[in-house]
Amino acid sequence: MSHDHGHQEGAHHPDAPSEIEARTLALESLLVEKGILTSEDVDRVISTYEHDIGPMIGAHLVARAWLDPGYRERLLRDAPAAVRELGYEYRADTRLVVIANQPDVHNMVVCTLCSCYPWMVLGLPPTWYKSAPYRSRAVSEPRAVLAELGLQLPDDIAITVWDSSAELRYMVLPERPDGTDGWTEKQLTAIVSRDCMIGVARPEVPALAGKH
Amino acid sequence: MNGVHDMGGMHGFGPVIAERSEPVFHARWEGVVRGMVDGTAGRYFNFDEFRRVMERMPAEDYLRASYYEKWLYAIETILKEKGVVTAGELATGRPSRPPPPPARKQSPPQQTPRFNTGDRVVTRNLNPKGHTRLPRYARGKRGVIRSLRGSFMLPDANAHGRGPEWQPCYAVEFDASELWGAEARPEDRVCIDLWESYLDPEASA
After folding, report:
1. Residue B186 sits in a domain of what CATH number?
2. Looking at the domain assignment, is residue B191 inside a domain?
3. Is residue B110 one of the residues assigned to a domain?
4. A115 is annotated as an active-site residue
5. Number of domains in chain B
6. Distance separating alpha carbons of residues B17 and B24, to the nearest angstrom
7. Closest Cα partner for A123 from A201, A190, A197?
8. Is A137 helix (H, G, I), strand (E, B) or coil?
9. A27 and B191 in contact by Cβ < 8 A?
10. Which of B5, B11, B75 sits opposite A27 (nearest CB)?
């Protein structure tokens, strides 16, 4: 399923073409030589995205919002402050905006013009989010796109698609699913996937969860 | 610019296919590209300029390139255009002159927005050859101001070294049927962040 992308944008290159790799390393060493950055700076960026920033941050915000109506309100009003409130550093120059799903409205996020994404709470975007199929079709046929990603949305739920065209980054606050009464924040966090917060999935309660 | 990067509503790209257990970077060079962009953006160029450079990639290359191939093209090009590195330095790997001084951050001024939440607007039919963040699919369309987002630098100027031209920016909500016609679900919506100069009041349109 993953490697049959043809030559569309979604294709990736496990073995990077050596020309690309060589160009990358040439530019990096020149920037280091010129004192513009250090290779430690570059390594730190890589390590930060690989280990420190990821969907676990967004999932924590969602779980807290489900448990604490006051926090939910603060998250929807001033998301960067709400991120800091849970002890995370907010490193972005762009502003995070959190959009809450409603019983009758499902929200999903795209950037049709490039690939803007709420990386400060979800980490770097998956390849499909940056791909031409998603960027072209999320705004015009969202239900078909959701179905391809595994979400069959009931007919009575309306969709609002957020096309991130400015220096704002959108994250979806999904609705808390039934069957999670009495769950701890940790239990709730575990059912909030990255895709739920992009708005292409909804949290699901595993069949046996909650039966202690 | 009416380029291939402006993909909203296009057909022919096929289904959305998710990769299972995708790594953050597929190869180390992708992370290095990311690190170089993060380490120079805001100091030597702004992100509107970066996006503009990427949009100028030949269309066939843009469609063929992976995400980080596009980023590498863009960071090489913008750093050369800004005089941070020269083609000669890239060829030899040896510095020949110091980089220009980094830019300083700017703050938005207080502005009085022209529109209020709930106002009906129509987007202008703009087709600039330069950079814009008004997608093609949303030009000449009627929408409603959903909220004011604050003042942001107009990308159409900022991408081309003009300005800063600060403008109020709004989340504008469109009916899917206004954008895509009668086949769209009447209850579906698309919200786009749009700068004030992209918008007219509906009545005067």
Report:
1. 2.30.30.50
2. yes
3. no
4. yes
5. 2
6. 17
7. A197
8. helix
9. no
10. B75
Q: What ipTM was predicted for this assembly?
A: 0.96
Alpha carbon distances (Å) from A176 to A63, A102, B38, B116: 8, 10, 35, 32
Among residues B99, B189, B147, B138, the alpha carbon closest in space to that of B8 is found at B138
Give the structural domain span for B47. Answer: 1-99
User: Within a domain: residue B114?
Assistant: no
What is the rounded CA–CA span in Å between residue B33 and residue A21? 10
The more confidently predicted of residues B150 and A91 is: B150
**Judgement on whether residues B90 and B129 belong to the same structural domain of the protein:** no
Which domains does chain A possess?
18-50 (no CATH), 54-198 (3.90.330.10)
Q: How confident is the model at residue A3 (pLDDT cuts 50, 70, 90)?
A: very low
Whether this prediction's pTM lies above 0.90 is answered by yes
Annotated catalytic residue, options A29, A39, A47, A114: A114
pLDDT at A1: 36
Reduced to 3 states (helix: H, G, I; strand: E, B; else coil), residue A145 is helix
> What whole-number distance in Å separates Cα of residue A109 and Cα of residue B146?
16
CB contacts under 8 A, B 79-108 vs A, are: 79, 84-85, 89-90, 93-95, 98-99
Query: Which pLDDT score, from 0 to 100, does residue A12 have?
Result: 53
How confident is the model at residue B205, as a pLDDT? 46
Tell me how far apart the alpha carbons of residues A170 and A134 are, in angstroms, rounded to a whole number: 16
Closest CA to B115 of B178, B190, B195: B195
Question: Distances in Å between the alpha carbon of A67 and those of A52, B21, B109?
Answer: 24, 29, 38
* Of the listed ranges A18-22, A108-112, B197-201, the one predicted with least confidence: A18-22
